[in-house]
Amino acid sequence: MPPAKKRARTYDPAKIRAAVRAQFGNVREGVHALSEEQLAGPTGLGDWSVRELAAHIAMTVESVSRALDRDEPARAELDPQQMLFASAAFAADIAEGTRTLAERTPDLDALYADAEERLAERLAATPGTRLIDTRAGAITLADHLVTRTVELVVHTDDLNRATGSAVPLDRQALAACTRLLADALAVKAPGASTEVRIPPYAVVQCVEGPRHTRGTPPNVVETDPLTWIRLATGRIDWQAALDDAKVSASGERADLSGLLPVVG
Predict the structure, then answer these.
(1) Is there a common fold for 13-174 and 189-259?
(2) Domain ranges in the chain?
(3) Among residues 156, 137, 130, 131, which one has the least CA distance to residue 60?
(4) Greatest CA separation found in the chain?
(5) Which of 4, 26, 52, 84 is deepest in the core (most CB within 10 A)?
(6) What's the rounded Cα separation, in Å, for the pair 212 and 196?
């Protein structure tokens, strides 16, 4: 079962919509620039090729349009944090769907163009309060789009690392992704003994223990957004990040290794 719900952070729906579209547009341009040799290369994500990763990114956006094509469910069951935890149960099905899509759709340019057009049309015609039914459960469109920033930012980084590309990260998408993964950590390890700082986007308190009330907290973890995202999704190891000075951690409860990855 996913961890219990915690009061959710609020996000500006208009900014999230713009961020999703902007980041998908960035990826579309990046994928278009890849050679067939690059597309055939490995990603380090299991046995996925770059082509399969590119197909998966398009699929995560197309899933929004497909959900809006279905009947509206009766009530919302998930917030963005719960959606992240619940989706892990469907990783095998998602991977299989990705492989099938990549095999059946050799023209990635057409795939991205169609996904981008359908998303723009449906977002223009649909309020954020509209409920959609996903394989993980029912969620509002506005909240589901917040989870898409995680998919897009994480996989843009995967694409860049696999191909040596420099597909840019939209600032709003990066901020939402960072915040949602930080909040997920606070849900997974409730408490207030450790402060996790990810400037300039997020600060959360987590881990059971003595509560900090004033001054500098006794247990502090600080890192940059991209390192945090890689840690939270299992792309890099906690100790390796410490050794490379990508993370600073002070205090006896500042070791997050047992809580990582937050989602996977």
Answers:
(1) no
(2) 13-174, 189-259
(3) 156
(4) 58
(5) 84
(6) 13
**Token pair 């999230």 is at which residue?**
16
Rounded to the nearest 10 degrees, the angle between the axes of helix 225-232 and helix 171-188 is 50
CA triplet 82, 88, 91: central angle to 5 degrees?
A: 145
Dig out the tokens for 43 from the structure. 């990603």
Q: Output the six-digit token pair for 248.
A: 């600073």
Domain 189-259 falls in which CATH fold? Nonspecific Lipid-transfer Protein; Chain A (3.30.1050)
What's the rounded Cα separation, in Å, for the pair 201 and 222?
Answer: 12
pLDDT tens profile 84-101: 999 888 888 888 888 899
Q: Helix, strand, or coil here: 220?
A: strand
The whole-model pTM stands at 0.94
Instruction: Tell me the per-residue pLDDT of 69-82, one tens digit each, with 9 for 90 and over.
Output: 999 999 999 999 99
Half-sphere exposure of 97 (CA within 13 A, CB side): 13
Distance of CA 154 to CAs 116, 137, 170, Å? 19, 22, 12
